[in-house]
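User: I've been going back and forth on whether these two constructs are worth ordering. Before I decide, could you fold them both?

Assistant: Sure. I'll take them in the order you sent them. The first construct and its structure tokens:
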Amino acid sequence: MIRHIVMWKFREGEEENVNRFLTGLEGLYGVIPELKQCEVIRNVKEGNYDAALISTFDSMEDLEAYKKDPRHVEVSNLCKSIRVDRVAVDAIV
């Protein structure tokens, strides 16, 4: 299995779009079949990354299929327009 962990920092003043993005990301669970588990976390402490995604896939091929799925691409494009930084880790678990 593959654990895909992503964290983001968002631009100030984008709270409405951040909420749209994170809600949209959560909405992909149960819709994109390759996405086996999904947890979206919002940070409550200032000075760190603002949100994180912890998700699980059966394989790297499934992760790549998820990334290319048009529903994910739409949500991802919103994120790209409001983020200032992104880090990710893909690990075998």
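The second construct, handled the same way:
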Amino acid sequence: MIKLGIMQGRLTPQNGRGIQFFPFDNWENEFLAGRDIGLDEIEWIFDFPDYTNNPLWSIEGCDKINKMIEETDVCIRSVCFDYFMRRPFFKYSEEEQNTILNENRIIVRTVLDRMVLIRAKLLEIPFVDDSSVKNSIEEDNISDFIKWCCAEADSRNLEIGIESDYPPEKFAPFLRKIGCTNLNANYDSGNSSGLGYDHVAELRNLNELVANVHIKDRVKGNGTVKLGTGSANFEDVFSTLKEIGYDKSIILQAARTEDGTESGNILDQLEFVKSYLERYGIE
């Protein structure tokens, strides 16, 4: 059954912090606001800046997270590992790579352990923007890393989801070639539209591999805009999600509005998505 959620931070004013960040000052209130709006879940952000103070990093912090989950019935199914976009080992010099790789592994292990405590199931690792894979050498390096992540996740009964800017004809074969049974894809309608990809081709190629969906809109070759005003074809997105039998989470990661209007903006986005779910009979 489809669950509707938001990317963490979307119910917190930006205050100059950019479009996506961990809301250190407001994360608990986001659960309360999310409950009042009618959200099912929040996708947790684990980023590099000040990561040791992220509640997910400590057992005590996880206790606080569980308290908010129990109080609001707003769950966490997925963790967005934005940390990796700031510290992708394969983007460093040969001399530094082993050091950063070991650091990456330590962080992944700890995050996976904490995910068990809060009953999250999917660690989403982004290979986009600063962690985008540009050549065959980088692809070989990340393939080994992904296999290692999958083994670590599997030992905890968790899943790994990959977000990539690979074109439709390359992404699914890449994941299938790695061959891990707990390896999936995160599909992002905004990244797809920004790159000019065909939603139908992407989703049909990925099919059963799709384990999480981010909904946003981007103009081809440009930034994030209000849902329905960019290059994303949401008729194609939702009709193909119906076709492939997608029944997991839909996470709103759409454009922001002025500070102080977060709840109203999310409500508008929810109505936008719900209209397509109803149109295509997606439950």
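Notes on the second construct follow. The beta strands are 3-7, 41-45, 78-80, 122-127, 159-164, 183-188, 210-215, 217-218, 224-225, 249-252. The chain has ten helices and ten strands.
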